[in-house]
Amino acid sequence: MTTDDASGLTDEFLAAREEELAGRVSPRRLEHIRGVAATAARLARAYGVDERKAYAAGLLHDWDKGYDDEGIRQRARDLGLEERLGPWLVEHMPQVLHAYTAAEALGRAFPEIPADVLRAIDRHTVAAEDMGPLDMVLYVADALEPGRRFGRIDELRAAEGEVGLEELFFLTYEYWVYLLLERRRLMHPDTIRIWNTYVARRASRKGSDRDRS
Ligand SMILES: Nc1ncnc2c1ncn2[C@@H]1O[C@H](COP(=O)(O)OP(=O)(O)O)[C@@H](O)[C@H]1O
């Protein structure tokens, strides 16, 4: 099996993980998870991304969402993630840790999960400067699944299929950053770097669109 091979993501494997999830998260969270998996699969079809991987990433992204703040801090330490993430993040941002711990724990427990699915899970909350198509599909699906309600969601939902995947990711990320500011929440220190990267990429994309027309 190559690292990105999806052949281990059989129907049986996914059904077994879904059953385990019912014991790991609340019914409400499970509903969100199912919504994200279905939305990720739909986005994958629309944007030419591997549908099974997208579904699997959606199904598994909140694997560790059942921990409370102290529990998830301890899990991050137990998985040896404190060095990578830094003690400040572990102490002050428990709400983002589930993404990193899920990717690490799932990778250890289930070698059949492709590396790119684990990567998408790892970056589903904070994102990254080098988001690939699968990463973007999961990030967007997490925000747009049918159970989510927030101010500009209808506008974002309407953009699905009308704009490219990177633009849809950008619009979703923009809104998420805006919400963090509005709610006066702490921001992950990578947020400005990621924002700047995608603003610059967008400007050059728009520039080359203009050159072509
Ligand atoms: N860049 C960021 N910096 C700090 N917190 C963030 C950032 N992005 C998202 N969050 C917060 O992390 C939490 C988990 O978000 P997320 O993983 O997307 O949702 P969920 O796991 O519920 O599907 C939310 O409270 C969200 O506001």
| Spans where pLDDT lies below 50 across 5 or more residues | none
Major beta-sheet overview: none
* Percent of residues in beta strands: under 5%
Q: What ligands does this structure carry?
A: adenosine-5'-diphosphate
Mean pLDDT: 95
Question: How many structural domains are formed by the residues?
Answer: 1
Helix content: 55-70%
Distinct helical segment count:
12
What's the order of the H and E elements? HHHHHHHHHHHH
Shape: globular
By CATH, the superfamily comes out as Hypothetical protein af1432
**How many β-strands, per DSSP?**
0
Features:
binds adenosine-5'-diphosphate; Hypothetical protein af1432; globular; 213 residues; mainly alpha; single chain
Summarize the helices and strands and which ones pair or pack.
Layout: H1 11-22, H2 27-47, H3 51-60, H4 69-78, H5 82-85, H6 87-92, H7 94-109, H8 115-122, H9 133-144, H10 153-159, H11 165-182, H12 191-212
The structure holds adenosine-5'-diphosphate.
Adenosine-5'-diphosphate is lined by residues 62, 65, 95-96, 99, 124-126, 142, 176, 180, 185-188, 191.
InterPro entries: Diverse_Catalytic_Enzymes (IPR051094), HD/PDEase_dom (IPR003607), HD_domain (IPR006674), YqeK (IPR005249)
EC number: 3.6.1.41
GO molecular function: bis(5'-nucleosyl)-tetraphosphatase (symmetrical) activity
